[in-house]
Amino acid sequence: MKYKVLVLNQDYSPFSMINLSRAFVLVFLNKVELVTSYKHFKLHSVNQEHDAPAVIRLLKYVNVPYKGVTLVRQNVFKRDGFECAYCSSTKNLTLDHVKPRAQGGKSEWTNLITACKRCNTVKGDRTPIEAGMVMNKQPFKPGYSHFVRDFSGYLCDEWQPFLVRKGRVAI
């Protein structure tokens, strides 16, 4: 099944995503609380019809000291919409250090940007200002909820109330 289920901590903060079959088993065994189900379909067994969970909540709070988005190439590409920060190309993408490593730049969210090979080569071991290049977007560190909402590649209407709180992204 291609459907995903949003898992909330006991305080309704986003915790993770799991597949639909695992979520159904957890609900069926009363390990979690069903918060919202998918409206457009049901799960069927031989003689019963069940709600398909869209959002579930843990019954006990799980303390997660740090819940962040892993800094890996694919997540930087997702954050930047799979396009070059300089020319908006979607071909031959690489990672670029805004402040080059040769100048002491680190591999961190706020210093990495998606660039095509051509722009990355033109920029070389210089900053965008030194190279006379303009970035269309600035690098930033996405929060977990923000990443789920905007970059995970999967989002449904049933999740919206739990990913945005009071006009801001839930953190």
How would you characterize this protein structure?
- This protein is an alpha+beta fold and 171 residues long.
- The chain folds into two domains: 4-66 and 144-169, no CATH class; 73-131, DNA Binding (I), subunit A (Orthogonal Bundle), CATH 1.10.30.
- It is 23% helix and 28% strand.
- It contains six helices and eight strands; from the N terminus they run ββαββαββααααββ.
- It has helices at residues 20-28, 73-79, 117-123, 128-131, 144-151, 160-163, and strands spanning 4-8, 14-19, 32-44, 49-58, 93-97, 112-116, 164-165, 168-169.
- The strands form three sheets. Strands 2-1-4-3 form a four-stranded mixed sheet, with helices on one face. A two-stranded antiparallel sheet has the order 5-6. A two-stranded antiparallel ribbon has the order 7-8.
- Strand 7 (164-165) and strand 8 (168-169) form a beta hairpin.
- The longest helix has 9 residues, at 20-28.
- The two termini are 28 Å apart.
- The model is unreliable at 166-171 (pLDDT under 50).
CA-to-CA gap between the ends? 28 Å
Q: Percentage of helical residues? A: 10-25%
- Number of separate helices: 6
pLDDT < 50 stretches: 166-171
Average of pLDDT: 87
Give the secondary structure arrangement, pairings included.
Elements: E1 4-8, E2 14-19, H1 20-28, E3 32-44, E4 49-58, H2 73-79, E5 93-97, E6 112-116, H3 117-123, H4 128-131, H5 144-151, H6 160-163, E7 164-165, E8 168-169
Parallel strand pairs: 1-4
Antiparallel strand pairs: 1-2, 3-4, 5-6, 7-8
Brief summary of the model shown:
With 171 residues, the chain is an alpha+beta fold.
